[in-house]
Backbone:
């Protein structure tokens, strides 16, 4: 395979990471809602933790985007 | 892409062989600072019965105050000015970058979509953590790398992992904000390209492809406003968590 083509294929594969991060972020908010609907009184106190979990899951998806950008424009 | 290019507005002066120029990035930082200043000034009248503007300002300070007292405890009060400035500056920067001023010919520049700027913000937070940590606890600060209840036979592994996760913090902090803003603007740019190109290709393609893309673009724009707020919040939240580590050692 041509090196240029391999870079573009690699960047496409990096998009899998973005999809995985979508699963992760969905899981974070889904689990939060599941818990929050069972005990709405405790939900507001856990918002900080919700966003910490969101930030951690989202970071990896953003890293996948960085990998794709590096493969296309830098490497 | 054109919207991410740093352009020189004023050539500036020469400092030890480096050209110190006034760029559009610096200009939009000034605009964000001035907008923030106006926002704060309008709400600091201190009326007994607050108006709408004062409620906005008080709500935002209370928000940061609650965040720090929940995450750091009573000592967190001292960091309210720093975390509040950080949060509001990033929020204003993100929102100013989203303003649709391009239709009147002014092109907003989202300076948080540049790693140098978010990197400096992250280094500021990280140095505050280091300075406060060593100031308050001296070399005892290194006990951060050995959590409570670490079994003896894992003492060779846990500090290494904790050290790596500690040193990665400024990078993850800066990278998250920078990539989230860049990715959002690239996404809007790509969708806008769909609309323009489909419109140029003919009436049928314009309606079949351009129409749905335009509707999607409106939705994504709303999402970007949400992301602008969330990223500013996450930056401030993580900073307050790191300050908690420095203040209280976990």
Residues:
């Amino acid at each position: 395979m041509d090196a240029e083509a391999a870079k573009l294929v690699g960047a496409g594969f990096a998009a899998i990471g973005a999809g995985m991060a979508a699963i992760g972020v969905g899981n974070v908010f889904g689990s939060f809602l599941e818990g929050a609907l069972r005990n709405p009184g405790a939900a507001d106190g856990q918002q900080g933790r919700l966003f910490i979990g969101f930030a951690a899951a989202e970071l990896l998806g953003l890293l996948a985007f960085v990998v794709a950008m590096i493969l296309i424009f830098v490497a | 892409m054109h919207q991410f290019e740093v352009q020189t507005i004023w050539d500036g002066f020469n400092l030890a062989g480096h050209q110190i120029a006034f760029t559009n990035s610096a200009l939009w930082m000034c605009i964000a600072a001035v907008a923030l200043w106006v926002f704060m000034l309008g709400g600091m009248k201190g009326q007994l019965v607050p108006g709408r503007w004062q409620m906005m300002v008080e709500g935002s300070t209370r928000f940061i105050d609650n965040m720090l007292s929940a995450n750091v405890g009573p000592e967190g009060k001292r960091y309210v000015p720093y975390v509040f400035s950080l949060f509001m500056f990033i929020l204003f920067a993100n929102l100013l970058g989203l303003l649709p001023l391009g239709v009147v010919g002014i092109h907003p520049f989202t300076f948080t979509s540049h790693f140098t700027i978010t990197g400096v913000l992250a280094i500021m937070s990280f140095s505050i953590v280091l300075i406060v940590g060593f100031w308050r606890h001296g070399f005892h600060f290194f006990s951060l790398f050995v959590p409570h209840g670490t079994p003896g036979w894992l003492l060779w592994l846990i500090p290494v992992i904790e050290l790596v996760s500690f040193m990665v913090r400024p990078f993850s902090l800066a990278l998250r904000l920078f990539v989230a803003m860049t990715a959002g603007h690239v996404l809007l740019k790509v969708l806008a390209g769909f609309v323009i190109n489909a419109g140029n290709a003919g009436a049928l393609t314009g309606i079949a492809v351009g129409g749905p893309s335009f509707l999607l673009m409106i939705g994504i724009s709303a999402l970007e406003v949400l992301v602008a707020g969330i990223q500013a919040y996450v930056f401030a939240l993580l900073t307050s968590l790191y300050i908690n580590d420095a203040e209280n050692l976990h």
